[in-house]
Design goal:
The structure holds three protein chains of three kinds. By secondary structure, chain B is mainly alpha-helical. Chain B is built from eleven helices and no strands. In chain B, helix 2 crosses helix 11, helix 3 packs across helix 10 and helix 7 runs antiparallel to helix 8. Chain C has two domains: about 80 residues, no CATH class; about 230 residues, MetI-like (MetI-like fold), CATH 1.10.3720.10. Chain C has a two-stranded antiparallel ribbon with strand order 1-2. Chain C is globular and about 70 Å long. The chains are: A alpha+beta, B mainly alpha, C mainly alpha.
């Protein structure tokens, strides 16, 4: 799940004076009584890869179609590059889209598909040829220029679709599940390619995906959507490590959630008592919640240490005794399902750093173990 | 084992096909009969074909029918394609339900009703506007277009509803205006359906007796009208000859089209296999 | 690409631009044209004719052209008299001829629908269960008669059914019968003609539902210990109900109004409404009664048409 974007990337969203490239303000889209997009406001900056992440039916594709101009918002406004997009049809927007189905015209060759957009602008023949050649070179499809879409493999079609949407040099490219139709191996490879092309051309990408791994890999920032609303916007790291709600914590990665009550609430730490844990969480950052409010503690499985011996640490917090009930060996990691004395099951993952063999005395079924974690690991959310 | 045909089903299927084809085949065989007594074999002869070619009434009626069928098919395809587009691409407009009803009702409407009502309309129009003056080729063509456009609409509508709408959206997105999207993307892709619609409309018009009887006038006898008036008087061998020619033409057309489509399909499959093979 | 160049040329050509500009000024866009043109056509040539028929069905017959009295009379100065005559409908009810024609139409249509189903179901089933390469050929063979002249196919039966026709000749040659069996100009011939002509309308929708059926359902049934015959009754048959309904309605509805088949194959007493309407119109020149017959037939068919529409709608819904 490594983010392939270089770390030195500018972060324009942190600069209050930066002008957003796309401004979405209080946009709502209804289909009859169904609210597909509910009062969404967003700012997306030049050069970003912004991922809209959510389950199917959460409104992410509708939002993308509003940007492309296939649908008009029921309420609210959209600005792209400073221009109000109300009433502007798709063929007059400075935006191109790559479709989930690729939507390659079946009766045209690769070259005709790619040149279609340029021909609509009535560019001189020579220029069209140069630009088509250049973009086919970029996506490594030059040798297939004469083929029809049905003569191409899935990965090749994906590259043609990308070339076709990039050849007009849009400042904004919308991608609807760009890698959804590819198999896993090809998808990983293409993710990196996509980011390289984006960096080379400096285009702003808005990507819709339901695949959190894809979002994590591609995105400069992720907007998590649920029931038509944007739930959280942030960098992949923010979203994973600092989810602001149970929904986000649960949707992105897997998590153990404990309901609890704040028993100590100081600016630099909190303590939460959780009945199911049978102990206390000590969290080394503050929480803004009213006293006695119900809170939830989210603890990622890979942040829990599992051991036979009691962990060496001061105090009684952040550790608990448990019994191993299930073990799933996944190759790179193993997943342990352990039962707390309260009966609650907890998920723990542990990298398999050494090769398994009979010689190694591994933790096994029904063994008594200790679970412990660092005070920085739990995240306290209030909703 | 599962899904295989049992002996019983095969027998009943054979019976069904025999039922469908024996009348046609017997008609074809007896068209080559020497005797005027259509059902008694008296030796091979092509004299009924010769007689048919020299029958000016039938030849003229066939020419008229061809003309009407061709004009009708073209008009019906234009109207039916527009109606199909309207019903699949514009989800909401005033009177959509009425339009849906009006495009499907002619499919099941008994022909006597359609024919009668259209004649009433033409008579009323003639009284009020003086047009169409009398009944003839114009009224027949209008009547045929009205009921055959419904068939074309169904064909086009079902093709358009399975067409990936994102193809049209992609063209819009790449800067083509809606009319251009239709001519550059939609039309070429649905062209086989349009061709099928045209042929269907042509056949419907070419075959129609009942509606034509109501809206035709003196001097506009189409082929079915002539056949019907002859057939009412009993079996006549030159009609057998005519039927043989018509059935053969249709059969050759359909079989050729079938083979052509199968070959296209095979080539397509080969291409797809090849594309999968080069997959990295 | 030729098309694109042609378009560009037309666009560069002045009048096109002028005309499209003009149309846009009047608020006529591509969208309104696409919807409007077929819409107007259907209203003018499909809807309005029915209203006229409805109107004429309540008019009086008169001599002249058109042979019916106008509904609205201008009596002297600005006095309008509305004349509605339900007599034509009352006549239909009272006259035994019409009542018989109605009953007979329904009977013959329903009977031939059942026969069509009996002949068509095994055909559709058989085709759906053959190997794909044969399937296309067989389907083509079902479709082929549909593309050839309906009139000629009905005519073909005359040669087979008449007294010195194919069947009688064969049977007499074999010595099965001495006297020809009278088949032409009987209700039997009408049944044969309808079943024969409308068989493709039954087979095609049935095939469509049977072909879509998931065959693993039958494997599952066999796995759970169900005998093939029972599996057919409990799984295949219920799943093909939409096809049965669609096929039956597609045969029944046009069969009720059929004219050609009873006219050519039926006897003088095998009356059906379509034929009655025809005679009323062409021989008696009684337009009002003919219109009343048409309206009455339409009322009879509203039910089946609604069933068909509902069935299609449900099938379309299930696809989505």
């Amino acid at each position: 799940m490594a983010n392939v974007r270089p770390e030195h990337k500018l972060e324009p969203w942190k600069d209050p004076s930066a002008e957003p490239y796309i401004r979405i303000e209080k946009v709502t889209k209804k289909f009859g009584d169904f609210v597909a997009v509910d009062d969404v406001s967003l700012k997306i900056y030049q050069g970003e890869i912004f991922c809209l992440l959510g389950a199917s039916g959460c409104g992410k594709t509708t939002l993308l179609r509003l940007l492309a101009g296939f649908d008009e918002p029921t309420a609210g406004k959209i600005w792209i590059d400073g221009a109000d997009m109300a009433g502007i049809p798709p063929y007059r927007r400075p935006v191109n889209m790559m479709f989930q189905s690729y939507a390659l015209f079946p009766h045209m060759s690769v070259e005709q598909n790619v040149s279609f957009g340029l021909r609509q602008d009535k560019l001189p023949r020579g220029e069209i040829k140069d630009r088509v050649d250049a973009i086919l070179e970029l996506v490594k499809m030059t040798q297939f220029a004469g083929r029809k879409p049905h003569q191409l493999s899935g990965g090749q079609r994906q590259r043609v679709a990308l070339a076709r949407s990039l050849v007009k040099q849009p400042k904004l490219l919308l991608l609807d599940e760009p890698l959804g139709a590819l198999d896993k191996k090809l998808r990983e490879h293409t993710q990196f390619e996509l980011v390289n092309i984006q960096e080379k051309l400096g285009v702003t990408f808005v990507v819709v995906t339901h695949d959190q791994e894809e979002a994590m890999t591609l995105a400069s920032r992720i907007g998590v959507m649920n029931h038509g609303e944007i739930v959280q916007v942030g960098t992949p790291g923010d979203i994973y490590e600092y989810p602001i709600s149970r929904f986000v914590a649960d949707f992105v990665g897997s998590v153990n959630l404990f309901e609890g009550a704040l028993i100590e609430d100081e600016p630099d730490y909190v303590r939460v008592s959780a009945k199911e844990l049978g102990g206390h969480f000590f969290v080394n950052h503050g929480v803004s919640a009213p006293p006695d409010a119900t809170v939830w503690v989210a603890l990622r499985p890979e942040k829990i240490v599992i051991s036979r011996d009691p962990p060496v640490m001061e105090g009684e917090d952040n550790r608990v005794q448990a019994v191993v009930k299930e073990i799933a060996y996944l190759g790179d990691v193993s997943v342990y399902l352990v039962r707390l004395p309260s009966g609650r099951m907890v998920r723990v993952t542990r990298p398999n750093m050494r090769r398994q063999s009979a010689a190694v005395d591994r933790i096994t079924w029904d063994e008594e173990v200790w679970l412990s974690w660092d005070a920085s690991s739990p995240v306290v959310v209030t909703q | 084992m599962i899904g295989r045909r049992s002996f019983l089903v095969t027998t009943m299927m054979a019976f069904g096909f025999a039922f469908l084809y024996i009348p046609i085949l017997s008609m074809m065989v007896f068209s080559f009969n020497e005797s005027r007594l259509v059902t008694v074999w008296a030796g091979f002869s092509t004299k009924w074909y010769v007689e048919l070619i020299h029958n000016d009434q039938i030849i003229n009626a066939a020419k008229l029918s061809l003309k009407i069928a061709a004009i009708n098919a073209t008009g019906a395809v234009i109207l039916g394609t527009l109606a199909g587009l309207a019903l699949t691409r514009f989800r909401r407009f005033k009177g959509r339900t009425l339009m849906t009803g009006m495009t499907t009702a002619p499919l099941v409407m008994p022909e006597v009703i359609t024919g009668l009502s259209l004649l009433m309309l033409f008579v009323a129009m003639e009284q009020i506007f003086g047009w169409p003056a009398g009944r003839g080729v114009t009224t027949i063509t209008i009547a045929h277009m009205t009921f055959s456009m419904a068939y074309v609409t169904v064909v086009i509508q079902s093709r358009l509803s399975t067409l990936d709408e994102s193809l049209e959206e992609a063209a819009l997105d790449l800067g083509a205006r809606p009319a251009k999207v239709f001519f550059l993307i939609t039309l070429p892709i649905i062209f086989p359906a349009i061709l099928a619609g045209w042929l269907l409309a042509f056949t419907l018009s070419w075959d129609d007796l009942v509606i034509t009887s109501f809206v035709s006038g003196p001097g506009s006898s189409t082929l079915p009208l002539v056949i019907f008036s002859k057939v009412r008087l009993g079996v006549s061998p030159d009609i057998n000859a005519l039927a043989t020619i018509m059935v053969s033409l249709v059969a050759i057309g359909i079989v050729t089209a079938g083979f052509y489509m199968q070959r296209q399909e095979k080539r397509r499959e080969r291409d797809i296999q090849a594309a999968l093979a080069i997959n990295q | 690409m030729l098309l694109a160049e042609l378009m560009a040329w037309i666009r560069a050509f002045g009048p096109y631009r002028w005309a499209s500009h003009r149309l846009l000024n009047w608020g006529i866009t591509g969208r309104t044209a696409v919807i409007g043109l077929p819409y107007l056509w259907l209203i003018l040539f499909f809807l309005i004719p029915f209203i006229i028929v409805l109107k004429i069905s309540v008019s009086d017959i008169r001599l002249g052209m058109p042979p019916y009295e106008p509904m609205v009379h201008w009596i002297e100065h600005q006095v309008v008299a509305l004349q509605i005559n339900f007599g034509n409908y009352a006549f239909l009810f009272k006259d035994a001829l019409y009542r018989n024609a109605y009953m007979n139409s329904i009977l013959v249509a329903a009977g031939s629908t059942v026969l069509c189903l009996l002949v068509g179901y095994p055909m559709a089933y058989g085709i759906a269960r053959t190997s794909p390469s044969w399937r296309n050929l067989l389907l083509m063979m079902v479709m082929l008669p549909f593309w050839t002249s309906f009139l000629l196919r009905v005519y073909a039966w005359i040669g087979i059914l008449k007294n010195n026709g194919l069947i009688n000749n064969v049977l007499m040659a074999m010595g099965v019968i001495d006297e020809p069996i009278v088949m032409l100009q009987t209700d039997f011939a009408v049944y044969v003609g309808i079943v024969y002509s409308y068989l493709p309308f039954m087979v095609l929708p049935l095939y469509a539902t049977l072909e879509k059926m998931d065959l693993t359902l039958l494997e599952a049934a066999a796995d759970l210990g169900c005998h093939p015959t029972k599996a057919f009754m409990t799984i295949t048959l219920p799943l093909s109900v939409p096809g049965i309904v669609a096929g039956s309605m597609l045969v029944f509805i046009p069969a009720v109004g059929e004219f050609v088949i009873p006219a050519l194959l039926g006897g003088p007493d095998s009356l059906m409404i379509g034929r009655v309407l025809w005679e009323e119109f062409f021989h008696n020149r009684d337009w009002p009664v003919a219109s009343a017959v048409a309206i009455a037939m339409l009322i009879l068919l509203v039910g089946p048409i609604m069933i068909l529409q509902y069935n299609q709608g449900r099938q379309a819904g299930a696809h989505r």
